[in-house]
Design a protein that fits this description.
alpha/beta; 7 helices; 10 strands; globular
């Protein structure tokens, strides 16, 4: 049997606020296979953002284990986590997080700089993924010369550039109108069809419906986990 891409066992995450401890995740067990398309849902305060930060190696759990692609990342130090993030995970955020005075091409190539690739290789790969997201004619444009939908496409291309195991998208259509949201979700469908594992965090049922599996959180626990 093939190993799951993600295996989380009894993950807990507490935060100390003043004199009290807030128990945000209360023991989560979760497996995600390579090539799945998963939506994480839940009301505000359900723990979905905390779970996403743990999945994305932006945070470490208070207890429990997290095996990502065969590696136990729950015990890793910050510099090791940074390396895993850069290699294994492509992030897409609601606010795009692009560098404002930098071209689309250079924004997309950025993760490859951290990974130590030479400039020629960076530009070749960044050009490839910008073509993949239909922005071949916008490579030299800066973010303020692009529409919201185009900016999110640049962000998606940047997430794909290092050929990560997982694309992790946090409310990727939160700042877009409904027509542009549909275009971006079609793009995620294509990315998934190309073999990427996609994990989507959203509070919108309509957006979650694009995924093939919906995991709902409530009060720090998984309330339901349904595959279509």
């Amino acid at each position: 049997m093939t190993q799951p891409l993600i295996k989380i066992s009894n993950i807990k995450r507490d935060f100390v606020l003043g004199n009290e401890i807030v128990y945000v995740l209360k023991g989560i067990d979760l497996e995600i296979k390579k090539g799945e398309y998963v939506a994480l849902m839940g009301p505000s305060g359900s723990g979905k953002s905390t779970l996403m930060n743990l999945l994305g190696c932006l945070d470490t759990p208070t207890s429990g284990s997290y095996i990502l692609n065969g590696k136990d990342v729950s015990k890793m130090k910050d510099d090791e986590l940074a390396e895993i993030r850069n290699k294994e995970i492509g992030f897409v955020f609601q606010t795009f997080n692009l560098l404002p005075r930098t071209t689309a091409l250079d924004n997309v190539a950025l993760p490859m700089i951290y990974a130590g690739h030479p400039k020629l290789e960076r530009n070749k790969r960044a050009t490839e993924v910008l073509k993949q997201v239909d922005l071949a004619d916008r490579m030299d444009h800066q973010p303020n010369q692009l529409s919201g939908g185009q900016r999110q496409r640049v962000a998606v291309a940047r997430a794909l550039v290092n050929k990560p195991s997982i694309i992790l998208a946090d409310e990727p259509t939160g700042n877009l109108d409904s027509k542009t949201s549909v275009e971006i979700m079609k793009l995620f469908n294509e990315i998934h069809e190309n073999g990427n594992t996609v994990i989507l965090v959203t509070h919108e049922e309509e957006i979650a419906s694009y995924a093939h599996r919906i995991i709902r959180l409530r009060d720090g626990l998984i309330e339901s986990d349904n595959t279509k």
